[in-house]
Request: fold
Amino acid sequence: MPHWRERLTSVGVFVAIMVALEVLLPALGVQAYIFPKPSAVALAIGRDLGDARFWGHAALTLREILIGCAAGSLIGFGLGVLLTQSAFAEAVITPYIVALQAVPKVALAPLIVTLLGYGEVSKEAIAAIISFFPLLVNVMLGIRGADEGQLELMRSLRATRIQILRWVQLPAALPAIFGGLEVAVVFSVVGAIVGEFTGASGGLGYLIEQRSFSLNQAAVFSTLIVLSVIGLVLDALVRGLGHRVVRWRRLGEVVGM
Amino acid sequence: MPYIELREVEKTFPVEEGEVRALDGVSLDLARGEFVSLVGPSGCGKSTLLRILGGLSRPTGGRALVEGAEVRAPRKDVAVVFQRPVLLPWRRVIDNVLLPVDVAGEPRSAHRERATELLRLVGLEGFATRYPGQLSGGMQQRVSICRALMRHPAILLMDEPFGALDAITREEMGVELLRIWSEVGATVLFITHSISEAVFLSDRVAVMSRRPGRVLEVLGVELPRPRTLALLDTPEFGRLAARIRALIGSGREDAA
Reply:
């Protein structure tokens, strides 16, 4: 944990940079529509946070992220578990997965928006596709990485496949699953925004575009900051949940693990 | 009919360069309630033999029988204690002991008392709610012994359970094991590479040759029970240990 001195210095640095920008930007003749002063950005943030319509956009983007991430993660998780249980299924499906993985998901945005329209569904679809892979890969890695000794123990107890999955493989995979979820959440933010850039009628990405076109840079910065906060909070939530669920990990080393 | 019978058991493993012959016709009988140790040099196939009896591996030749029935899969009346404790780190100690109950599909509440009693037997009753990561290796191994005893096994297969412990703890654990054994009763096949441990614990000691493993000789241990550590220094103990050491030594030379 950083000491108060380091914390204070971090804050001090931030304040110093803000003050410097506040003074230097106009002094150097930088136009407001290229790089706004911190005070202008602060004002824009204040305006936005008091504006119900802004909150509406934020809520829309948040919904796209959450629904898309949840859907994609669940499907990725489910398929991942299935593939570890059937060598045949894995052999059949893996080539498709490898092929799809190679495609940069954000490049699919125009295609998806064309297929699913300007509404939030297309953004959720993009976020879902982005979330799918981290979960699929990580749940498989997590399950495959289960300790051989534990599997043999379960066999010696005459456990069924479902029991082994439930009591050994999935708990063992939880750290990897939450790692994948963290990645999925962060990427879902990107996915939703890119979807909105491609074609939307609302949301924070839509706002960024609109405000950019109308050269309202301070408002663009404000939107970016709010978006970043959303991303940070979501990431912290997933990480926090992961830590709580995997509490036992921090309680020391287990012999032979 | 012997209770446990290993009849000319052979095991060959395929490896890259061909195959490895781990067991070369092992024959051994165990009577009900006996404590038998299997001692031999590293790699002689002791663990393989135990795993075959535990239903975790199939012999490539010969047969492993319990009460006349061939062992094809892990049996309900057989419990295995592995070399590593293999506790599930995400479960508390008491829940690790109760794992066999979960797998059997029975309610934990019905067995909680026994689990607690077993932990008390090994001196770990205060650690029931801890996680395995908070216990030392020796303590974890004791928990795994409790887990093995949960289902009242008629047969206990132990694969060098004290291998990871220091010499002093090993001796103490040996005494404790005998105490538990006298209370729960079971037929035990105990694998070790420690000659003194084998003699101290057992009714009989089967000495194995080096790979490919077979039984060189089975010695009866006529020492009185309950066994105490003082027995380690008696002439009779020394004689038995020396005989075993000589057998293992000659087994080593034959193969050389």
The radius of gyration of chain B is 18 Å.
